[in-house]
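Worked problem 6 (solution included).
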Amino acid sequence: MGLIRDYFNQTRKPEGFLGRMMVNGMNKGHDRLSDWGISHLKKTEPSKVLDIGCGGGRNAGKLLIKYPASHVTAIDYSDVSVSMATSYNAEAIKKGRCEVMQGDVSNLNLPKEQYDLATAFETIYFWPGLKECFGEVIKVLKPGGIFMIVNESDGTDKEGLKFEKIIDGMTCHTVSEIEEALKSAGFSKVKSGHHKSKPWIVVIAKK
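Solution. The predicted structure is:
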């Protein structure tokens, strides 16, 4: 039980061998969720994209494919994630279309008003204060920029709440909690969607 708990706790900040296993699993296990979330970006044509909490880099790669004229900056505060995301997107990095760097959403050390789109897939569960972190995101978005959040848990499902008890520092937020924090951080328009048969949620906010 201890090893299982240690493994799932790698979700928050992957480290070492178990962390590499977890990040590999994220790339493979969240692909349908991520693609479902990305499908909601129908009217956005960003030139600069920021993927926060990039994990193994698969989602950054999908955004590069969806927006072939864009540049994607992927950040994560885990050394393991940065390393694996760099490897995953090596070709795009060589072409100057992608940058992977270490960063902390509670203090985004990035230029203000530089990004057209910011994304957060399966990561806000671990952000230390939604309003404050959302405030960091809104600073780096251009006026009219979009912020998309995609979560596997809607904050009420049994599976999500089970993992909330296992994984240290995890909070499964409800849609209403996320929307309220986004508006408090200064986002002007917020809309959300729910998968028809799963507890998956997508929340899209406009600066």
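Discussion: The two ends are 44 Å apart (CA to CA).
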